[in-house]
Amino acid sequence: MPSDVTEPRPQHPSALAVCALPAEEEAVSQARAFVGMQLTAWRIGEEVVDAARLVVSEFVTNTVRHSPSADVSLRLTRARAGVWIEVFDSGTWRPPATGGPYDDLSEGGRGLMLVQALSRQCGVHRTAYGTCAWATMSEHPPGGRRARTGGRRAPRTTPAPPPPRTPARP
């Protein structure tokens, strides 16, 4: 995960939600539930909500497993360009050890690659109080973007008529 990428700041934020949890195993499921509830309330699409849950799950799991922090904070920001996810803890981030490639049977090491695949941008940086892992996500999934129609509404499709009924035989 790139640590040298400067975290972009949301332009024109329209909503903010914050959640603070103890850095314990239960925090992972609680953070996922918080993200699902909040993004659904903001009317973000289900596919993006699911991806955001995975991103937050990875970030919070990393705090619980690898940080000496007693707590973890989650901040969601909605803006014109999408959703910003930030997870803060009081630990000091260190780049992952480069001991060798992960194989298909290893239990860890692929979560941050998943975050990179699901987000537009992501990174980790130190703060005055510890570490911030962040990701930006579009409100619309890549395959489900709204069709560009030059400012016009997309034409409606009419469902096909049902097949003719055949009378039941006695």
Structural class based on helices, strands and sheet pairing: alpha+beta
Report the sheet with the most strands, covering strand number, pairing sense and barrel closure: 5 strands, antiparallel
- Major sheet strand order: 1-2-3-5-4
Q: Report the β-strand fraction as a percent range.
A: 15-25%
Spatial shape: globular
Averaged pLDDT: 78
Distance between the termini: 69 Å
| Uncertain stretches of 5 or more adjacent residues | 145-160
| Helix and strand element order | EHHEEHEE
- According to DSSP, the number of beta strands is 5
* Helical segment count: 3
Radius of gyration: 21 Å
Report helical residue fraction. Answer: 25-40%
List keywords for this structure.
single chain, 170 residues, alpha+beta, five-stranded antiparallel sheet, 3 helices, globular
Fold and architecture overview:
With 170 residues, the protein is α+β, with helices and mostly antiparallel strands. The chain is 26% helix and 24% strand. It contains three helices and five strands; from the N terminus they run E-H-H-E-E-H-E-E. The chain has helices at 26-41, 46-66, 111-118; strands at residues 13-22, 71-79, 82-89, 121-126, 131-137. A five-stranded antiparallel β-sheet has the order 1-2-3-5-4, with helices on one face. Helix 1 packs antiparallel against helix 2 (46-66) and helix 2 (46-66) packs antiparallel against helix 3 (111-118). The chain is globular and about 35 Å long. The relative contact order is 0.20.
